[in-house]
Amino acid sequence: MSPHSRRQHRRSRTLRRVLAAAGALAVVGGVAAALPLFAGASTGTPSAARTLTVAADGSGQYRTVQAAVNAAAAGDTISIAKGTYHEVVDVPRSKTGLSLVGATGNAEDVVITYGNAGGTAKPGGGTYGTAGSATATFSAAGMTVRNLTITNSFSKKAHPEITAGQAVALNAQGDRQVYDNDRFIGHQDTLLAWSPSATAQTRQYFRSVFVKGDTDFIFGNATAVFDHANIQAIDDGAAAGGLNGFITAANTDASKKYGFLIADSTVSSTAAANTYYLGRPWHPSSTAVAQVVFRDTALPAAVKKASPWTDMGGFSWKSARFDSYADTGAGAAVNANSPQLTTARAADYTVAKYLAGTDGWAPFGTSGSTAAATAGATAQASTPAAATAGGSAFATATGDARTVTEPKAPATVCATVSSKLAWSGRTSSSANETTPPDTARIQRALDSCTQSGSSTVAVKLAASGSGAAFLSGPLTVHKGEVLLLDSGVTLYASRNPADYQVSGKPRCGTLSSGKGGCTAFLTVSGANAGIEAVRAASGSQGRIDGRGDQTILGTSTTWWGLATQAQQQNKNQNNPRLIQANSSDNFTLYHVDLLNSPNFHVVYNGGTGFTAWGVRIRTPATARNTDGIDPAGATNVTINDSYIMTGDDGVAIKGGGAASRNITVENSHFYGTHGISIGSETNSGVSNVLVRDNTVTGTDALGNASVSSVGIRIKSSPGNGGKVSDVSYLDTCVTLVKAPMVFDTHYSGGTGSYTPYFTGIVVDGFRSTASTSSARSTFAGLSSRYPLGLTLADVAVDTTANTSSYAQIRTYDSNLRPSGTGVTVTAVPGSGSVPSCSFPAYPNL
């Protein structure tokens, strides 16, 4: 079935699903049953609303955000172009329903920044004070703020004369405000969630946001929900057991039941262990009684585990309303100093209930958030968003927050490097192999070409006469550059391990107890870069060949043979990766063939905005540790229209050093791999992953069967685990595999103090055929406290054998009913339809 046909198929069954899900909520969990099926919009924008444009370069209607705000009427949208805006922005109460939207969909592209502190002198006398220091003050009700970064750049070190160092990035002061995919960055008092009248109804919903700071950096008296947020506590250098700071400082009025809720989120920090408090009670008035709940949230070792809350201004934390529930990670604790909600009480402290207020407000269908997961239920409410995003009434994930379309090669070619080699095979002369002849001239072109303005430039590798080959050692692609390969051109990687050697590390091309001895063949450094190729009408496109199957110079083994020896001897192979992109925002792989990598093919580490489109990876299933594409600590990733054949994970989404979120894998095909995977490193969390319209075949194009053929997989363990949430698999077809589905919190028997916790996992539309005779799926939660939360809808597998434990599963029209210790299955009656499947042959490269 084509991707288009599968989408139509999903849409045709959506109405049936919505009705069925309504019945499911009545069955699963009393809290969810009481919630409305459909949620209202966040604002009531009038029909005459306009869109005003802002661009710092003058290409919009306004050059500053404040000028557009001044001109806007209630309900208007302000679209802000890529750029950094050095200004203070104030949206008054009269501009109700106003939307401020970053035009690119990437919050890092659109930055509003200023540097006032509470003690900064005002023109005309006095100082700004805490609230007045804000870079952005949004006072209007019904506002939507999306895809923006708001920072306060004040530096205490640069201004030692200013002792009042509170420096607010955002001062949010309106009811029914929505913040979606935004970033708020500061140090002390980064984000103020404020109700000008302490007893008034003031609700603010922060969804999929990033908040960074150190002292009381989420504070105020509003009812504020942080849902699937990434909260980063800055390392200010305190030694283990010392004090870096405090995450929250709420001053909720005693008349309000709800203050701050941090739910399904990830707190991350590189700070030393036991140096951060979850919060302290701010008590500026006699009626302030702080209320904060951290629930279902991953906490780092930096949190003071033995005593996560502390006193403030003479007021005891024990007099406040501080609670936790089902948190995970090295910083999570259950002890006398860490009050825990009971399961019954947790049902009253959900995203939906915090936001509902007196008018039932439910932005983005928040009735399906944490509320549906309480009291042992794993159901998710059906909402218009869920029903339209991919056509699934069960799916919660939305994937990449950007609007992603097929890339285009850069219009500007800065330099062309022509081939001088005419190869008849895949090796060259001994002299060329020892000293690759093209390294210096390609790197020279890359070094000399710099980005001009906002346009990306290309360095093109072109065929010349009978030559269409290049032989090179490691190369670096810089900011704003694309390495562009002409159709039919092949860039071959050096076989000389000395070319890749990393100083101070084990010798590249050898086995050792250590690792990291080799740099990557292609390293990408800086934003707006790419590795792309020209695709001819015949389908031929440029290729990069890592030659992992060929002998390492000076040895008698290949790179792949070395990897096999490492497994046999329980050592590490020091092999180079093919492509490594580090903190390279807006990185693009387009129409390029990647062959025979000695190690992982593509690692995208620590960036925001990665598109892989039309990528064809071809490495046999027998080549160990040759992952296809690995986003790690990454945000906003799309992998589309790609063919991936490797000897390990086809895709492996990792959340080790930093959280990964907003990832889409779609319209792609996998051959002989270990499947479409998340993990095994999930320490910092993985969330909002949408996997749709993909096929997985357990054998490669050469007929090799994968030793670990899996369809879809989430894998982790207490050795490197963390929270994985909101992952939706839509219309997946698998064949010839040993394990159609694997959700395993005990992967490889790893041991340690981390907590792997998989929740909000949805498989909607899944078929397996021709599975191996011993095929078996795995559904293994960690424990009764951290069960696997899973929905199986429209599932037809040809083998129902499974190993299951500690799982809460809802099924809808599924022939797979897991059973085992601690497994609860709620079957929702109904008639759906599983996807019909066809498996395309791997393209002839």
Give an account of the 3D structure.
- The chain is mainly beta and 845 residues long.
- The strands form 6 sheets. It has a 26-stranded parallel β-sheet that branches.
- The two termini are 23 Å apart.
- InterPro entries: Glyco_hydro_28, PbH1, Pectin_lyas_fold, Pectin_lyase_fold/virulence, Pectinesterase_Asp_AS, Pectinesterase_cat, TAT_signal.
Overview features:
single chain, 26-stranded parallel sheet, 845 residues, mainly beta, 10% helix, 10-stranded parallel sheet
Largest sheet: 26 strands, parallel
| Average pLDDT score | 89
Share of helix, binned: under 10%
The tally of beta strands, per DSSP, is 57
Radius of gyration, in Å, reads 27 Å
- The helix-and-strand class reads mainly beta
Low-confidence stretches are 18-47, 367-389
Distance between the termini: 23 Å
Helix segment tally: 10
Global shape: globular
Organism: Streptacidiphilus monticola
Active site: 216
Pfam families: Glyco_hydro_28 (PF00295), Pectinesterase (PF01095)
Domain Pectinesterase catalytic: 52-357
